[in-house]
Structures are given as C-alpha cells and as structure tokens.
Design brief:
The structure holds 2 protein chains of 2 kinds. By secondary structure, chain A is α/β, with parallel strands linked by helices. In chain A, α4 runs parallel beside α21, α5 packs across α15 and α12 crosses α13. Chain B is of the alpha+beta class. Chain B has one domain: Alpha-Beta Plaits (2-Layer Sandwich). Helix content of chain B is 24%, strand content 35%. Chain B has 4 helices and 5 strands, in the order βαββααβαβ. A 3-stranded antiparallel sheet of chain B has the order 4-1-5. A two-stranded antiparallel sheet of chain B has the order 2-3. The chains are: A alpha/beta, B alpha+beta. Chains A and B meet through β5, α7, α8 and α26 of A and α1, β2, β3 and α3 of B.
Chain lengths: 771, 110
C-alpha cells in the first residue's frame, strides 16, 4: 500500500527568485494554495500550530471558524509538506484548549503577601504594563538591569521577541531554567564546535515534494539514539518520518534502555544501561577503526584529530563496553558493520545525550561516529543545516547587538562557561542563576519574568526545592502563560494571559522553511495577547528605538533574512523553502569566507576540538561513568537497587502541558512509573498499584505500570505532573508525583548536562490511607 | 459506485491514537467510546530479542464512515490524520489490490 498522501506540489514549478536575484535565495513555496477560503458557512484558515500550546513541530493545520470568528474545528493540512496532513492527539484535542474554562482570559495581579493564595484581581493590560514597568524600573535603578532575569521555556517564535525585550530593558540574564540547559542546546554546541554548525537526519524535509524528490534517497540505516521520536518528535522532526523511511527500505537501529514500538521493529536493538551512550559510541568507533571500515577519503581530506579519536576509542573494546553498557560485544560489532555497510547512515538522536552530566564530550562521540562513515551532507545522511534565508525567528539576536560588551559579560556564567555561545540560544547558566537568586552572589537577582515556562513542574527541584526557594526569594515575578500554572500560583505578582497559536500572528521557522502563523480565531471574548505582541508592547516602552515596528507583521518582515519577501507576500505563498544543497563543505558553501571545508578554526571537522582546547575543556570525545549506579556507587545499591530514568514523553502531554485537557487526560489519567514484571514481583508491586518512588532526595507517589518496556533493574518515571483539578493553594500538588523532585541540579564541567536519565531509587507500595 | 472500505496495514501502526481521537472529535463521542479504537497487543518477548508489539485499530459499530466528510470529497477523519499513513479509504475492489504481500493488513468493509 502506497502512502496515501500524494504531495501535489512540484518543487521545480514553484521556484521564485529573491529580490537580489542570487541563487542562494531561490526557494520553493506553497504558491497557488489559498491561505484563507470559505467552505459553506465556515471560514478556513491555513496556519501552523507553533505554540502555545504544543510541541516543537509546528504542523500545518486548517482552522475552521464561524461567522463570528469563533473556533469550530480543525484538521491537518494535507498540502503542508512538513506533516502532510497528519496530526497527533494534542493538536486534535485543541478544541478543549481554546475553549477551556481554566484558561487565563485577563491580566491579573496579586499582592506579594498573598503568594500561593488564589487571591487574584483582574486588571487591564495598561495597568499590568504600568505595574511591571514601575517595579522593574525601581529595581533597575537600585540594583542594575542585570538583577532581573528573563526566562522562557522551550522556545518556538518566542525566543527572538523575548530576548529582544530583555535586552531592550538592559538585562543580559536570559534564562532557560533546566539544569545544565540539558535539552538540545548541548547537542547543538557539541556539533557546532566540531563542525561549525548543526546536523539533522535527512528525511527529505528540505523538499516540498518530499520522498518523490529525485535528489533525495532514503537513509541506508537510521540510528535512533536516546529518544523515542514517534512520541516526542525530537528536536522538531516529525517522528513518523522514521516510519516513512522504514517503508522505503531504511534499516533501523535503536539505542534505548526502553523497548519502544520502533525498538521492537528494529533490525538491531541495543538496550543500553541509561547514561552509557558515549561508551557505546566509542566502542562502535573502536570497531570501525580496528576493522579499517571508516571512510578514508573523508577522514583524510576533511577532518582533524583522527589520531586522538583513535587513541580514545582504542580503550573501548566491544568487550569492555559490554561490561559498561550491557550491550553485547556482538551487537556492538553488528552496529559498526551496519553503520558502514548500510550507506548512508543517519541518526535521529535525542535528549538522553543532553541529560548525561558530561554531555558535550559524550555527544561528541556520536558526531565522530557519524562523521567516520562519511555520511555528512549526502542524500539520506546527516545533513548540515542553517536557518532558512538566515531568518531570525527561532534563533534570537546576539546580546552584543543590543548591549555594551561589559553588560553582556555580567551574564551569570559568562566567564565560567564560554561554550554557551555555541548553543543557539545563549542563556545564563541556570543553576548558577538560581544560586544567585538565593545567595545574592555574584550579585543580587531581584525579579523574574517567566514567559511560557513552568519551571516548578518541569525542572529539577532537589535538594530542598531549590527552584522554589530561588523563585520565591525574588521580590517581584511576572508569569506569561495560557493557563494558571504551579509556578504562577506560587510566585507571581502579575499574570499575563497569552494567545494560543490559533489566535496569534506569528511565524513558524526553524531549519527547513518559513511559514506564517495566521491568526484564525477572533479573541474578542478573551483579553489575551500573543507572546510577541507582549514583547513588542513592553519593548517599545523600554527602548522604542529598538522596536521601530508598528505591527507584528512589520516585525516579522524584518526578521525574514534574505528571502526577498515581506510578511504579507509570504502569507500569499504559504511557505517558503530555501534551495537545499548537498555536499556544501565540498563546494565552499559551508563557510562565510567561501573556502572549502567546515566552519571551524581548522576548516576541518574536528575530532579534537580546538575551541575546547583553547578554553581548557576536554577536547576529545569521552565517556564518564554515571555518578550513581552499579559501577560508581555499589555501596548505595542495596538501599536504592533500581536505576531511575525520566524525561520520556507520552502521546498526551508536552512536558507540563495538557493535564487539564479532558480528552488527553483520558488517554493518560495518572502519573506512571514503568516497572519490569520481575522487579514488580520482587518489590511486591502489582500493575495499577500506587507506589512510593524514593531516593536520596525525596519520595513521590506514582502509579505502577508493569511492563517489559523497561529492563529488570530500570524504572521509567513520568515528569512534570501537576493536577489542575486539585487545590491551587497546594500548587496543584506538583511536587507529589513528579520525577523532578528526585533530580538533583548536577551539571558538567562545561556548564551543560544533567543527571535526569541515570539516577537510583527504590520503590514500595503505599500503605493503606496514603493515597 | 461499489462498496467502500478502509485498508489498514497495521505492521506500521505505532499506536499514536490519532485515528481514535480524531474520530471522537469529529463525532463528539465520549472519551471511552469511538468509531475506531486502537487495541494493543504486547509487548512480550517470544525469543531472544524477538518481540511481539503491535497496535491494531478496530472499526466499531459507531463508525459512520464519516459520510459528511466523504460527501465533501475528503477522507474519513481517522484516515486523514493517521500519523503512519497506515490507513487508506477507497473502493473495496481497489483496496484489495493494494494489500502489501507479507504485511499484516485488515480490510474493513464499511
């Protein structure tokens, strides 16, 4: 059976040339498709679901509205090359978000003395802005602009606006409060320091005609490493592209402690011990070098430091790696063979790499692995990626373009962790920032702006609820969100209600293409504003010369790089793809100076990073034993015999989002711990029992799901739970059933990394009456 | 005309529930009902590194073939939103020719 979705767009017929006429800006578009039309009584608007709420994808969606502009229904946009009409359950349940009774619909304020109490007072937007400007202004006067932190969550088109607003205020302290920024940023950094830019697995997403494009060919083998992309859509790639490639003959290797659906279908399933990814990668490299199976042409002509890599990998024989990783030497050899023989290999990697403590040198091992096969920038391989047309949508402007050098240098962590500047979104070191909130060192942090982020539910809390303590220690907090959250209920003096993606004018753009987010729904009944509108309003107050735009559309027009189009023109063609080329490092298109090679100090892909060397960090790929576990803390294993891993997603939720959406909650009503049947028997736990999960930092209540999806000595624990139906004044019990209670804020030598994936714990049934 | 049906190649059904949820939304069915329900089979291990782990969408009595959508020239909601492109709507005669050899497929006569 062929894929049902025919892509009726011919890329070659849709070429347009930008205003400067250069080849670099030639693009494919969705020209010829209307962006708004009538179907009977209903108006249909073509748009993209890029938050709030939602995940990283930003799938193409058609929104149906009535004559009053009210939301009626939606369906996936089958013309959109990115998702080709398919949607996941979260988008499909959007009707229960936009009309949700618990939505924030007006700005509100609360006295500081009433923190934690459901004691809100509705105010107007102007009153809210005045209050924020007055208070932030007083604090700035007294303590300096850097004493206010500006945090956002997982991004989308928010980063650009929020960073600009913060810089307009004068603060260099942009924040993303996940311990060690352990999400995506570390992998971007590791790839960037080795290659000069980032790489993605080529699933044809650069082409509007997708799998039919004659330039593209299916990957020979896809290594799915440290993520379950079908559920998580890791890094903004549609996970089901992997299934599309399977149908077209790609073999699958899965590296995961969990038996996922795709692992059960894989040609090779490497069930590793959580946190040992780098040892496994080095062992595969060991085999490739020992068997002289790597791509000599690529290594000799385009790389630097191969001898150093070979020296490190030599220690990791498959037999040694088997002891460390639990993956058999035989499978390690098989993986090396497949990586080389099923050419080209590609890799969909994920968060498990970021969430090891020494994640930079660990991720470098994976970059080295794919580089040795020579699969870089070949059709179906690992392709180097850039922002389309150089647009600044996902990627915010550099602080230096707004602030004096000396102000930028006051960013917390600036001197200690220089690798942060290669991470895409340059933020303060989050754990040091929380320390500063608590201790006032190196200087006092007095206020927080928390835009579309819920750190009390989503980030590590131990020991002693450090995040809570830090945020509560601030004099004044502003939270911007679609729902009241545990974070807002705990700490906010002002809450600003944000528009959903269906109500906002925005831009969906990362790596592959640009698409306008067309406001489909009227917000007359709700006094909400989009993230960007809020940033624009306040940015104009703080530094009007930095915000010369009269509308959100004008703002986006100026962010569209060298596309040659303005926002309204883009709207008419729906989406716009840059011309994609393979083999860029061989044609002088990888570097700004036009030289051949990679955008690194040596011009080569660096197995030994000269940048890391320069700053005194580990410069070659390496494995560090997990901080806790059978090899490093055998003395603790009697007390805490199970390895605890967390962060895996499920179909219903994006981190702390979605618990108040009835249809999603019905699919996953309770916070789950997965327990292997043998472990369940050993610890007297039956399927459906509520259990205590306890480690050195605390204990939480979870519902046991007994399944062979986890190995006998590993449990997998849901994260970011809260219960919107429970008491707001207990913060919706967000600390009661949330793996983050058990996660310490430990990060690595580079300022990146976390230990979320490889902790230890014990489990035991709740006593009578403890529910 | 000819009878219509839905062909499901559940070798590729990943259990994402998009068919189930899109049907509920389309018809306003409660959260414990629907015109199509995804059934999970497994996981269990039946040999070293050999796993049974399948999801099978089952069409129920509440399936009305999305006649309004079909009249408007669209696919049923479940077929339209299937993330694995594992469902196809069409004439039974045509669909029966599209069953991939060796695949685990179900052809529902609607």
């Amino acid at each position: 059976m062929e894929d049902v979705r025919e892509i009726k767009q011919n890329g070659m017929d849709d070429w347009v040339v930008g205003k400067d006429g250069s080849a670099a800006v030639v693009a494919a578009t969705g020209r010829g498709l209307p962006w708004r039309w009538q179907e009977g009584d209903l108006t249909v608007t073509r748009t993209a679901a890029w938050s709030a709420p939602g995940c990283h994808l930003g799938c193409g969606v058609k929104v149906y509205t009535d004559a009053n502009g009210n939301f009626v229904k939606l369906e996936g946009d089958e013309c959109n090359p990115f998702n080709q009409g398919r949607l996941c359950v979260r988008c499909l349940s959007f009707d229960q978000v936009i009309t949700n009774e618990q939505r924030l619909t007006h700005p509100m304020k609360r006295a500081r003395a009433d923190r934690g109490k459901d004691a809100w007072e509705e105010i107007t937007w102007d009153e809210a802005y005045d209050l924020i400007c007055d208070t932030f202004g007083e604090i700035k006067e007294k303590y300096g602009p850097e004493s206010i932190l500006f945090a956002s969550g997982t991004g989308r088109d928010i980063a650009n606006g929020m960073y600009r607003m913060a810089y307009s205020f004068g603060s260099p302290n942009i924040a993303y409060q996940q311990t060690g920024v352990a999400c995506y940023g570390p992998r971007i950094t590791a790839t960037s320091i080795m290659m000069g830019n980032y790489c993605v697995p080529d699933c044809s997403m650069y082409f509007v005609d997708r799998y039919d494009n004659p330039q593209w060919k299916p990957p020979g083998v896809i290594f799915i490493w440290g993520n379950n992309p079908l559920v998580s859509n890791a890094d903004g790639n549609v996970g089901h592209w992997m299934v599309d490639c399977m149908k077209r003959g790609s073999k699958i290797v899965v590296v995961d402690p969990r038996l996922t659906w795709i692992a059960s279908k894989a040609d090779l399933f490497m069930r590793l011990r959580p946190g040992t990814d780098a040892a496994l990668a080095l062992a595969i490299i060991n085999v490739m070098i020992e068997e002289d199976a790597y791509d000599h042409e690529f290594v000799e002509n385009w790389t630097y430091g191969f001898e150093d890599l070979a020296r490190v990998a030599k220690e990791y024989t498959p037999e040694k790696a088997e002891e460390i990783t639990w993956v058999s030497a035989e499978k390690i050899r098989e993986a090396a063979r497949m990586a080389v023989e099923c050419s080209p290999m590609t890799m969909q990697w994920g968060l498990a790499l970021d969430q090891t403590r020494e994640c930079i040198s660990g991720s470098m091992a994976l970059v080295a692995l794919w580089a040795l096969t020579g699969c870089i920038d070949v059709p179906g391989g690992m392709v180097t990626t850039h922002q389309p047309f150089g647009a600044e949508i996902w990627q915010p402007p550099a602080a230096e373009t707004f602030l004096d050098e000396e102000v930028v240098q006051r960013r917390i962590g600036y001197y200690e962790y220089p690798l942060y500047k290669y991470s895409g979104c340059v933020v303060a070191q989050p754990d040091m920032l929380y320390d500063a909130c608590i201790t006032g060192k190196p200087y006092a942090i007095k206020a927080g702006w928390w835009q579309s982020t819920n750190p009390l539910s989503c980030c590590s809390q131990s020991p002693e609820s450090k995040a809570y303590k830090a945020i509560m220690n601030l004099d004044f907090n502003v939270v911007v969100d679609i729902f009241m959250t545990p974070t807002a209920m705990a700490c906010a003096e002002v809450v600003l209600p944000v528009a959903t993606w269906a109500e906002k004018t925005g831009m969906r753009s990362i790596w592959y293409y640009m698409q306008p987010i067309n406001a489909a729904v009227e917000v007359a009944d709700n006094d909400v504003r989009s993230d960007l509108q809020i940033n624009l309003d306040l940015g104009k107050r703080w530094a009007p010369e930095k915000w010369p735009w009269n509308s959100v559309e004008e703002f986006f027009t100026d962010q569209m790089g060298d596309s040659g189009y303005d926002y309204d023109q883009l709207r008419e063609v729906n989406w716009m793809y840059p011309k994609f080329e393979y083999h860029k490092y061989r044609t002088g298109k990888q570097r700004a100076d036009g030289a051949y090679g990679f955008n690194t100090p040596t011009g080569r892909l660096e197995f030994r990073s000269t940048l890391c060397e320069q700053w005194g960090f580990e410069s070659v790929p390496s494995y560090h034993e997990t901080d806790r576990g059978p090899r490093s803390t055998p003395e603790l294993m009697d007390e805490y015999p199970l390895i605890l891993t967390t962060g895996a997603r499920n179909w219903s939720y994006f981190h702390s989002e979605g618990r108040q959406v009835a249809r999603l909650r019905a699919l996953r009503p309770d916070p789950i711990i997965e327990v292997n049947p043998l472990a369940a028997e050993k610890y007297g736990v039956a399927d459906g029992d509520w259990v205590w999960v306890e480690n050195e930092y605390g204990k939480i209540k979870m519902k046991a799901q007994v399944t062979i999806a986890v190995p006998e000595s590993v449990v997998n624990v849901d994260h970011a739970w809260w219960f919107p139906e429970r008491n707001p004044e207990t913060l919706y019990d967000t600390f009661s059933s949330n793996a983050n209670q058990l996660v310490p804020p430990e990060f690595g030598s580079t300022g990146f990394g976390a230990n979320c994936k490889s902790l230890i714990c014990k489990i035991y049934k709740l006593s009578e009456g403890e529910r | 005309m000819g009878r219509k049906g839905i062909l499901i190649n559940y070798d590729f059904c990943t259990g994402c529930h998009s068919c189930e949820v899109s049907c509920r939304v389309e018809h306003g069915y409660p959260d414990d009902q629907g015109g199509v329900i995804v059934v999970q089979v497994g996981p269990w291990e039946y040999g070293p590194d050999r796993y049974q782990y399948s999801f099978v969408p089952v069409i129920t009595d509440q399936c009305d073939q999305c006649f309004e959508r079909v009249d408007a020239g669209k696919d049923p909601a479940c077929v339209h939103h299937c993330q694995a492109f594992a469902m196809k709507y069409g004439r039974i005669d045509d669909l029966s020719k599209e069953v991939d050899e060796g695949s685990k497929s179900i052809l529902y006569y609607l």
